[in-house]
Amino acid sequence: MPLVIVPTPVGNLRDMTMRGLDALRDADVIACEDTRRTLKLLNRYDIRKPLISYHRHNERTRTGEILERLGRGENVALVSDAGTPGISDPGQILAAAAIEGGFSVDALPGANAILPALLMSGIVTRGFHFAGFVTGSGSEVESALSELADIRDALIFCVAPHDLAAFLASALNAFGERRAALVREISKVHQEAIRGTLGELVLVSRTRELKGEMLLVTEGADCPKQDEERYGWPILASCMKKEGIWDKIIANVLYESYGIARNTVKKFLSREAAENERERE
Q1: Domain 3-107 bears CATH identifier 3.40.1010.10
Q2: What is the pLDDT of residues 36-88, one digit of tens each?
Q3: What is the Cα–Cα distance from 15 to 7, expressed in whole angstroms?
């Protein structure tokens, strides 16, 4: 009998698909990330089924139990708190183990936050790279982001509200100034897409308390070079340079005032100095 991976709404409960509801009704048991949240969904659609927990803290031990249920001929539906299980949520280990055990595995199409975030970002791209959550210490996060800096497609990250300001600063340092959008509370009452540059989003994160589930979308490395004058800071940097102010001080001022990464400012000033030198030759 099958293991059915069932996407659930990321916000509005009306985003649940009819096939998803059928799979929940046909299941002998539903494995879910949080039984309380899944119960709210089931109550909304008047579904009564046994629930067992399946989350990142018990997925390895619980996988064996679910395989035994499949072996007894039970239908098992797997859901997460929101979206499609296995995408930055528990589920991949179970799906792989079920396939290896010779059981049928079906994954239904349905709600996810990735595509809505990409489309609402306004960033045009040929493809995208979904990086999910990037965790660790500040240096570890920045190192991991640096490895993604040369990817040509748009980048999509899951971001926790309490890590938002630090993560945006790390992204700015790793990627430099590029277009980005922070999309939060998808399909919920307070859905919002904050668009701009990474530097501008850093400033937003310092002046607003943003809550809820968020995704950050940034341009890829092969996007057309930004019109630097559009953002104003290069003009200010050039004027300060002409006044004889040191590069280090200029970089600090722009970082503190606009959130522009110091390395980004220094690279701009070095490039401008080289261009001026060539013109004098």
Answers
A1: yes
A2: 999 999 999 999 999 999 998 998 899 999 999 999 999 999 999 999 998 88
A3: 10
